[in-house]
Here is the input.
Amino acid sequence: MKEELLKIISQTYAPLSTACQQELLEQMKVSSYEKGTILVREGQYSDKSFFILQGCARAFYLNDGRDISDWFAFENEFVSAIVSFFTNQPSPHYIEVLEDAVVIELTRTLIDDLAGKYHDFEHLVRVVVTKTMLAQRERISSILFHTAEERYQLLLAIRPDIVNRVPLMHIASYLGITLETLSRIRHPKKRI
Amino acid sequence: MKEELLKIISQTYAPLSTACQQELLEQMKVSSYEKGTILVREGQYSDKSFFILQGCARAFYLNDGRDISDWFAFENEFVSAIVSFFTNQPSPHYIEVLEDAVVIELTRTLIDDLAGKYHDFEHLVRVVVTKTMLAQRERISSILFHTAEERYQLLLAIRPDIVNRVPLMHIASYLGITLETLSRIRHPKKRI
DNA sequence: CGCCGAGTTGAACTGAATCAAGAAACGTGG
DNA sequence: CCACGTTTCTTGATTCAGTTCAACTCGGCG
Here is the structure.
């Protein structure tokens, strides 16, 4: 299982030296959470990054009562209260477990320690952040250039299983549309 | 001038060791470009990142004839054909010089070399990418949560001088609105 | 069962886009 | 330094994609 994990990290992101792998395995903490668990609440300082081994989770805003999803993480992906984690401010995000999950919890202290100690871990962090940055950019151009329907189809192309794992209301808010609009997209009226 | 530059990089992003500074200064190339110069065109492979010493530039899309700005860079900021630079694909972006500019050009090869050789340069890259990632995230929530007018006011709060340095049409497309809408925001009608 | 959250459907509304026509500002050459 | 063409910006009328509000359906589960 630990070998499996290191293999995935190495393949998906970047390889680590043996010494670094060793220390990572020693220091990291694996936790299990039930569906519905709130890992981070708005206003909290969160210095943790979660790597999903099983299950899925989302980051979302509560913007005057509106629940708006900002990020989904499935197996072998990261999720964190990104603002709080990187800028050490109170989190605007909540993080919620959407399916019973097994996760690795990495604190910022651990990440910074390992990144300071091991050049290849610093590189790994760079790669993870770069991927996240490119995903955000993709989302921006998706919102600016595509209609609600096109965005839904693009999401389906990338993540066909999302509709079976995540309630439609979360998908809608992630796409920047209302649940009603998503419902209409999924059940188009016959043309006149 | 070179000392000045290293001081800015160190203060704005992350400090570099003397050896690394040395090699960076030796390897980097400084260029000047006139207003209107296109540094990168859509479809090109661009492996350069530009650090603006003087002037400003923008990255933009030509999406079926529509010119849509995606990123502005002013003094002491980076701009690159982000997709091509990071994923080695043909660039969807153009890059245009908006004011006569002096820039440092860093190739991906140089950056990867320095990052592989110097742990602190790898860290610097991580910091730059992290800042970019957070800026993208901010832009997403700006688009999702705020009206056209609020987005314009937010941009003004961050970059008051942008209206004097960049044509309104570029600002409008960056905000995800049309030039006409921006004009109306700037010249509100008296209420009835 | 009966309730409750999730999703669907309909009708009216709205912020911003689009289309169209000018006005201002800009710069370039005579 | 002015005339003329080009680019940038403003203003108005109309349209539209998506929201809002509201009522209803479905499916699971205590």
Summary: The first strand of chain B starts at residue 29 and ends at 33. Residues 147-148, 177-178, 180-181, 184 of chain B lie near DNA strand C (CB under 10 Å from a C1').
